[in-house]
């Protein structure tokens, strides 16, 4: 059973109403104060003062648990001397001492009244005597200085013990009734709310400051990132910001990996680009030289074609002369009886043949010189075909067209070599035969001058001249056909060389464009490396 002391009702009703009105008004005022921006000490002082004014207890003390939850210390006191306040605040005591007195027989409502002599008081209890009373004059129901009355303070949010409110020295000098205890508990409840709110506000303020500190440190690290320094490891001073820091570190590691790869790629591209640039410069130079060589070959072949045209014209004239010689020989054979009369004609024709033979010999020498030039041209064409094959091999797929042209030039060079050799053989035979014919014509002329009577021998000589003239006619026809074919082949070679020259010009233009593109690529690579150099990355 709860301890309920006997009370003698001597309360004035009007005074009691006035007291209740004052208590309600003070409770409303305390509710407004609790919503104000007050510190814990200020709020508790207001509650202690209001409780003392409205409950009839002149001495009040609020004891709160420390952070360890094991010791109680005084935080707000009223109604006693400064010395007692100092003693209360300098002498904390254990929570076990307080909870050991919370026995059912001392409970009134939710508070505890411990009469004197019912509990052995410890020296560390926060009991301060406020007045002296003669024990012999003490009557039942009156308040004894050694009586204790306290109200436990519980957190309305977590329902845990915060401390307790102890009261002493009632104005009426009597033990409080249950109704008075309930009023005191209302004020104690306000104290509990104030304590809980102050602690909650303090925790949130501490959390807010810690969060601000963490955000400030995180902002400094992010500021370094904005300046291109990705080396520092981002750390958080607050656990709520640690996931953000971890995400940023992961993102920075990935970006650093990408940037390292970009730097490696940029270096590799720069190295390959420099090689390509050097090769492009060499290829442009070689292509330009080749273009000049092809142009020179084109001019040489053109001169060769013109020379072959002249050779063809002279061979045609020689063929006509040979035909005239054949006619003269036939006429000499049929008019042997008029040999003496026609000797002058024969000698003149013979002299003309000698001159023709001389021209033919000179033409043979020119043909030999031309053949020498053809052999030189053939050698150059071989070299050109070889250079074109080499350049086509270096150019790769883009040089496949050069390969075909190189093969055609090589085939044309071989054909020209064969033709030149045949022409040389023919000219050699012609020169031999011409030399023999010249000697015979000279002998015939001497014989005609000296011995006109040797008509028969002259007829035989004329027969030999006719045979030689027929052979010479066939040889001249072969020379004409060969010269014509060579002229046509030269025209084809000129057309092919012209096409090669055009293709070489296109290749040169493309190589210069590729060189310009390579130069721009080098510039872009240098710009990329310069920008990447401004970013300081973490070591992989």
Question: What distinguishing features does this structure have?
Answer:
alpha+beta, 7 strands, Beta-Lactamase, 2 domains, 540 residues, Helix Hairpins
Task: Give your account of this protein's structure.
The structure is a single chain. By secondary structure, this protein is an alpha+beta fold. The chain has helices at 13-34, 40-55, 82-90, 95-99, 178-226, 242-334, 339-395, 400-450, 455-533; strands at residues 57-65, 71-78, 93-94, 107-108, 111-114, 148-154, 161-170. The chain has a 7-stranded antiparallel beta sheet. Helix 1 (13-34) runs antiparallel to helix 2 and helix 6 (242-334) packs antiparallel against helix 9 (455-533). One of its GO terms (biological process) is signal transduction. This is Methyl-accepting transducer domain-containing protein.
Helix content: over 70%
Shape: rod-shaped
* Average pLDDT figure: 75
Unreliable segments of 5+ consecutive residues: 1-9, 128-135
Radius of gyration based on Cα positions: 67 Å
> Biggest sheet: strands side by side, in what order?
3-2-1-7-6-5-4
Number of helices: 9
Distance between the termini: 77 Å
Q: Determine the strand fraction and express it as a percent band.
A: 5-15%
Q: Given the helix and strand composition, which structural class is it?
A: alpha+beta
Quick overview of this protein structure:
This protein has 540 residues and is an alpha+beta fold. Helix content is 71%, strand content 8%.
């Amino acid at each position: 059973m709860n301890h309920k002391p006997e009370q003698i009702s001597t309360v004035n009703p009007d005074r009691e109403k006035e007291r209740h009105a004052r208590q309600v008004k003070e409770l409303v005022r305390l509710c407004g104060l609790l919503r104000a921006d007050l510190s814990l000490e200020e709020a508790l002082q207001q509650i202690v003062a209001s409780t003392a004014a409205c409950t009839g207890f002149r001495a009040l003390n609020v004891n709160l648990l420390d952070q360890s939850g094991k010791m109680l210390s005084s935080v707000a006191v009223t109604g006693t001397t400064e010395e007692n306040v100092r003693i209360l605040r300098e002498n904390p005591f254990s929570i076990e001492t307080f909870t050991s007195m919370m026995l059912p027989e001392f409970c009134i409502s939710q508070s505890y009244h411990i009469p004197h002599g019912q509990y052995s008081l410890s020296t560390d209890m926060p009991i301060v005597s406020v007045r002296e009373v003669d024990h012999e004059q003490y009557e039942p129901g009156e308040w004894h200085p050694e009586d204790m009355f306290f109200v436990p303070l519980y957190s309305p949010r977590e329902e845990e013990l915060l401390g307790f409110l102890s009261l002493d020295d009632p104005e009426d000098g009597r033990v409080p009734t249950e109704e008075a205890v309930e009023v005191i508990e209302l004020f104690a409840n306000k104290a509990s709310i104030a304590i809980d709110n102050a602690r909650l506000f303090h925790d949130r303020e501490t959390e807010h400051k810690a969060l601000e500190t963490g955000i400030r440190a995180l902002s400094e690290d992010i500021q370094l990132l904005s300046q291109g320094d990705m080396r520092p490891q981002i750390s958080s001073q607050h656990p709520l910001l640690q996931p953000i820091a971890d995400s940023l570190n992961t993102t920075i590691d990935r970006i650093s990996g990408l940037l390292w790869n970009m730097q490696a790629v940029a270096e590799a591209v720069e190295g390959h680009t420099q090689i390509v640039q050097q090769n492009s410069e060499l290829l442009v130079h070689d292509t330009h030289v080749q273009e000049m060589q092809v142009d020179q070959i084109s001019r040489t072949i053109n001169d060769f074609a013109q020379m072959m045209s002249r050779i063809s014209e002279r061979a045609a004239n020689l063929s006509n002369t040979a035909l005239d010689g054949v006619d003269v020989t036939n006429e000499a054979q049929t008019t042997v009886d008029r040999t003496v009369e026609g000797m002058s004609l024969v000698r003149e024709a013979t002299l003309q043949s000698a001159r023709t033979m001389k021209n033919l010999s000179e033409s043979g020498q020119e043909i030999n010189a031309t053949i020498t030039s053809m052999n030189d041209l053939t050698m150059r064409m071989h070299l050109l075909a070889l250079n074109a094959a080499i350049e086509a091999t270096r150019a790769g797929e883009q040089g496949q067209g050069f390969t075909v042209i190189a093969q055609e030039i090589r085939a044309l060079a071989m054909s020209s070599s064969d033709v030149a050799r045949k022409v040389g053989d023919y000219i050699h035979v012609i020169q031999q035969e011409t030399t023999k014919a010249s000697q015979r014509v000279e002998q015939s002329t001497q014989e005609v001058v000296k011995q006109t009577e040797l008509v028969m021998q002259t007829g035989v000589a004329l027969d030999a001249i006719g045979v030689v003239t027929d052979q010479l006619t066939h040889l001249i026809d072969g020379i004409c056909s060969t010269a014509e074919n060579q002229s046509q082949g030269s025209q084809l070679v000129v057309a092919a060389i012209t096409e090669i020259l055009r293709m070489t010009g296109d290749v040169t233009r493309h190589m210069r464009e590729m060189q310009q593109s390579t130069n721009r690529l080098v510039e872009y690579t240098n710009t990329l490396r310069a920008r990447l150099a401004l970013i300081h990355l973490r070591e992989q």
